[in-house]
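Support case: user asked for a sample of complex input and structure output to validate their parser. Sending the pair below.
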Amino acid sequence: MTDIKEIGRRAKSASKEVSNASTDVKDGALRAIAKALIENTDHILSENEKDIAGAREKGINQAMLDRLTLTEKRITDISDGVIKLTMMQDPAGIIESEMTHPNGLRIYKTRVPMGVIAMIFEARPNVTVDAAALCLKSGNACILRGGSEAIHSNIALANTMRAALQSAGLPPDAIILVEDTSRETATGLMQLRGYVDLLIPRGGAGLIQSVMKNATVPVIETGVGNCHIYVDASANLAMAVNILDNAKTTRPSVCNAVETVLVHRDIAQSFLPLAKKALDAHHVELRGCPETLRILREAIPATEEDYYTEFNDYILAVRIVGSIDEAITHIAKYSTFHSEAIVTESYENSQRFIKEVDAAAVYVNASTRFTDGSEFGFGAEIGISTQKLHARGPMGLQELTTWKYVVMGEGQVR
Amino acid sequence: MTDIKEIGRRAKSASKEVSNASTDVKDGALRAIAKALIENTDHILSENEKDIAGAREKGINQAMLDRLTLTEKRITDISDGVIKLTMMQDPAGIIESEMTHPNGLRIYKTRVPMGVIAMIFEARPNVTVDAAALCLKSGNACILRGGSEAIHSNIALANTMRAALQSAGLPPDAIILVEDTSRETATGLMQLRGYVDLLIPRGGAGLIQSVMKNATVPVIETGVGNCHIYVDASANLAMAVNILDNAKTTRPSVCNAVETVLVHRDIAQSFLPLAKKALDAHHVELRGCPETLRILREAIPATEEDYYTEFNDYILAVRIVGSIDEAITHIAKYSTFHSEAIVTESYENSQRFIKEVDAAAVYVNASTRFTDGSEFGFGAEIGISTQKLHARGPMGLQELTTWKYVVMGEGQVR
């Protein structure tokens, strides 16, 4: 069995060197990684083929298979993403605020790396590189535990990055892949107090549940997005159809896609047929409340469970509501606090929605699909936090750091 | 048995009103609370006497008894503290950053209240008011679970505050005291997912352990401070004695007091007798490493356990080290990441200490006793975080808030 504590110890020790490395050294290592990924493309692709063959044997579905697959183009994109990080500001060392105490003490609130960041994620090999590069740029060591389906790809990618770290004068243990993909190892990682400073799980509800139950290290929850669009009585209906269609059909598998539309009774009769016409082009299955079914006779009855579900698919739940209050109450009950939108021409209702809806991102007259690190101007992102502590919404480099108060005196006592 | 879920539900419902209340309304409620505390002084003191009588019966020690005792003066001070909060900036609503997307979307990162903040704390009735007032000012509802020793005082204080809230037009359930002080209720509170947005335990290592083991809601660890002062070979010895004496003897029971001094071998012979002379005035018990004992023959041998201990008393552990590296390694091993100081005249060593020591606050040539909300200019504080997530060091109003991205468009889609 893997000695997970030993992995923790190695990462902690490497984290001290990375944390003290200058931006130049870290950027040099990122460039070395980007170059090595291109140079090792053939090897990485041949290892990836083993994973694909294994997945096919297990009868994995097409969407999953697509996420697992690497190509020359994808490796180039991943490498370009690493290079892009070298152009971003290093968050470590930024002085957030400063004050001089009346007695002359200077107090600086300074951003510093977290230390060791662990990630548990499922079968997308690009996450292995993205996560490692973000951690490195922000001065952290990382422990990566990917899924068994991508293990050959992940080993090839991690070894490539570790060799590049060494060539750039940084310890290879700043990036450690846990090759043992057993559940015990994952649980062990969740409980590495004293070694892991932050754990970021990236995956479905099952993984998040297990982390909540087992983790004793600090955690940031990411990803589950049961997003709503509320179409107000005053909405511009053409705009509402366009936003709904965009939020549902451009990429239904992602967490910022919409899952339920709430429609004000006063405009349901005119809005719903328009919406259906647009969504039909993508064969979106509509699951409606009884009132919806009276307007859209082909819709399927929605169950209570449907309103709780992140379909990640061409399925949309529909409910007619009598007021903005009813819409806000529905959202409060079923939401995962990710992204929520209102389409309205009423100033008052826009302000009420912004104030009263509790979510990482609240939208007025725009698609929920914008909740994303690059769209928000952060460059890369390591995930989208749906919790309130430390990070909320897209997490970039800054969210991978903490602070330290540096206090400089000349003998002051209290 | 107390229905802790029902308490969670009530607090969550009240939190929505408080969260939407204007700064004026919240400040009005704080003024009403401050006034009511003064008006109810007699009642509060007579309830406090019951707690004191109970504590005496149980044979509680003098320091604990002192922390438990309220006086007219102390109530006035508590009331003044509440008034002081009305003069501070409301963190809720502050726009931290903003950007305009190339497509014209405006994205605002806005500070918003957490929602419901729970606190579990031990016998200091002033914490009941301080915590409630900080939560109210920042737009949060709070659930307070104090210790059984202070239960009569806490009920009197909470009822006073609840009546004041009502008179100011806010729901009394914005401040709920859990009157049932059983362990089950505390555990229930730690697991109120969906109701409690943040739990802050304030107490000894036992409480923190229990929270780490049982909590499923987000937690900020506070308080345990095993702080060190390292006296470098280049230190100004008079300054070092003064800082050490201040950090040990001005208030040994607090978390920013020093517990271990690390002394460079080159100056140990001259420094230790000077330090002993100063500390003798407060009868500080010295527990030293074997080399220390050869210099200070009256000192007691230090055990390995001593270096891990937050004495909270007139006791100081002493170890002689051969280099700054040895000092940094010692601190990394035994520290609780609270406050760590170096006394040095070497620029290089000051920079190494600042960079390499992992703690909420690192000091050069100053006493560790400055790690405190008012000393750092935050006004009041709700605790001192020793974790890296969300808050590190003294926690003021800002740390009781989270963010929300407000995105305003005119129909933008992706």
